[in-house]
Amino acid sequence: MIKKLLDDLLDYHIMEKSFTAHSNVLKFRSSYFRRELENIQPNENNIKIIIKSSISAQILMLFFTADEFELEELSNKLETLLIETKGTTTLKN
């Protein structure tokens, strides 16, 4: 019974975050985003959307912040984490 309750509770802790970023900036700054964006067709509004199911919003915000402040080592480690992880964050171009 407790296992079932915990499983049900875990289903409700999924959060979806959406970020808007220019695809050229993402492609230039990250080989991960370059590969992802090259394989996605834009929607009817010419927007490319990347959906990941286990990358936390905090990881993405840290990635963007590390890149903005040119913290190359941190940015590289976060990019590796993005490549190795699957997540529920939506990125819109």
Automatic annotation (TrEMBL):
<protein>
    <recommendedName>
        <fullName>BTB domain-containing protein</fullName>
    </recommendedName>
</protein>
<dbReference type="InterPro" id="IPR011333">
    <property type="entry name" value="SKP1/BTB/POZ_sf"/>
</dbReference>
